[in-house]
């Protein structure tokens, strides 16, 4: 550890200032805050998102950090030596519509507080630290642009085709924000430039809160497959078609929904998830038997072999149900994302530091996607959670107690101090 401008006897133990963290989180919440529903509207590359990024660069400047915005819109502040591989502390600033104030923002503010705490204690790291606010993590345009760009998972073809749900092109949104869209292809960070990647995030689920556990050390990000499915039967008069003579597409889908638990019991694990998240009946009239139903299936697990088994089981069960109900079944696989496993060495470091602080913790998967998943196969990368009250996230009622945030950021500081020496 390099001591800047102090003798060893003048060094104080670095500590987190929760008041600064609270102030920063509340300041960022103002960008895109809606008074009516109390939600945050700060989608990627919106005016509100870019204003928050500029605010962050000003804070980096006040801390004396070298800072820049790369071609993908990632805001990067560097503390410590100008050369050499860096410890990256990263998360995102963009939000879903009507989102909460902690999702992503906590990870960015936590990184900034780590730097402040080290500077307050007179500690300059031997290994540089970069605090990064990644761009467009929430998938407005169908990906995690900033993390994809930094890890080389971005192509010109994808940039050309990416659009949001309203058909607005990613390239147009980036241009409106003052960025050259193809500049994102120059944001790649070679593995040898990165010492380690760390992310702290609110859990966005109920486990830690229900168990009264302080820290969730993430073992990996679940892989995800998404299907668009269709069952086609026969539209019929709801009053005249006998129940045993119908080809009711919706009844077929409902039968499948009842089979999900059995599919997981037989082919999955305690980390498996299968969800029917969207359903559309046609013709969609109260007095007509549904002749067609379109629906989504999203499956998740931390083991890709298990994902394959789950997908095969879903196809078999749906085919069987279709025959029973005299339906035609078809599906299109929209995406297949492999699981990403966190670095075991960083997991052990988090566990060691949590024990030293007396924090309760558990090892757990993440069913939600995060920036870290793109770094897991690129460099050594790790992540941990702090509790979400009631498991609520992506909503105005998202909340994490300040005391839990304080413990989490202190754990992050402890881990960074170990890595930076």
Automatic annotation (TrEMBL):
UniProt-annotated binding residues for Zn(2+) 1: 92, 103, 201
The protein's required cofactors: Zn(2+)
One Gene Ontology molecular-function label: metal ion binding
InterPro entries (UniProt xref): Amidase_Cbmase, Bact_exopeptidase_dim_dom, Peptidase_M20
Signal peptide: none
Pfam families: Peptidase_M20
Cofactor note: Binds 2 Zn(2+) ions per subunit.
Chain positions recorded as Zn(2+) 2 binding sites: 103, 138, 394
Gene3D superfamilies in alphabetical order: 3.30.70.360, Zn peptidases (3.40.630.10)
PANTHER family in the cross-refs: ALLANTOATE AMIDOHYDROLASE, ALLANTOATE DEIMINASE-RELATED
Family: Belongs to the peptidase M20 family.
Identification of the protein by name: Zn-dependent hydrolase
Species classification: Bacteria, Pseudomonadati, Pseudomonadota, Alphaproteobacteria, Sphingomonadales
């Amino acid at each position: 550890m390099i001591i800047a401008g102090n003798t060893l006897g003048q060094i104080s133990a670095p500590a987190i200032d929760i008041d600064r963290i609270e102030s920063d989180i509340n300041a960022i919440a103002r960008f895109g805050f809606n008074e009516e529903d109390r939600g945050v509207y700060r989608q990627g590359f919106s005016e509100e998102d870019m204003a928050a990024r500029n605010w962050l660069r000003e804070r980096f400047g006040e801390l004396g950090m070298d800072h820049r915005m790369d071609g993908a819109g990632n805001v990067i502040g560097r503390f410590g030596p100008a050369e050499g591989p860096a410890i990256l502390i990263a998360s995102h600033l963009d939000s879903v519509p009507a989102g909460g104030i902690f999702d992503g923002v906590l990870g960015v503010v936590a990184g900034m507080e780590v730097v402040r705490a080290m500077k307050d204690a007179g500690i300059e790291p031997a290994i540089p630290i970069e605090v990064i606010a990644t761009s467009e993590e929430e998938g407005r345009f169908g990906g995690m642009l900033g993390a994809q760009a930094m890890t080389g998972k971005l192509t010109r073809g994808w940039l050309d085709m990416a659009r949001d749900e309203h058909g607005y092109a990613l390239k147009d949104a980036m241009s409106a924000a003052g960025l050259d869209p193809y500049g994102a292809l120059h944001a790649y960070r070679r593995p040898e430039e990165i010492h380690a990647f760390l992310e702290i995030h609110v859990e966005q689920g109920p486990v830690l809160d229900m168990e009264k556990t302080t820290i969730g050390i993430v073992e990996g990000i679940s892989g995800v497959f998404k299907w668009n499915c269709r069952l086609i039967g026969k539209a019929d008069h709801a009053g005249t078609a006998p129940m045993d003579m119908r080809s009711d597409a919706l009844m077929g889908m409902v039968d499948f929904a009842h089979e999900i638990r059995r599919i997981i019991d037989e082919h999955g694990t305690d980390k498996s998830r299968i969800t029917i998240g969207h359903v559309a009946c046609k013709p969609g009239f109260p007095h007509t038997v549904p002749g067609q139903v379109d629906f989504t299936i999203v499956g998740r697990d931390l083991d890709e072999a298990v994902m394959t088994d789950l997908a095969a089981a879903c196809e078999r069960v749906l085919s069987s149900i279709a025959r029973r109900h005299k339906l035609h079944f078809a599906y299109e696989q929209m995406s297949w994302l492999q699981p990403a496993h966190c670095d075991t060495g960083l997991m052990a470091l988090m566990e060691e530091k949590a024990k030293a602080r007396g924090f309760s913790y558990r090892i757990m998967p993440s069913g939600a996607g995060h920036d870290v998943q793109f770094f897991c196969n690129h460099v050594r990368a790790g992540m941990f959670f702090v509790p979400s009250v009631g498991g609520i996230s992506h909503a105005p009622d998202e909340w994490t107690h300040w005391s839990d945030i304080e413990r989490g950021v202190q754990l992050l500081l402890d881990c960074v101090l170990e890595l930076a020496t």
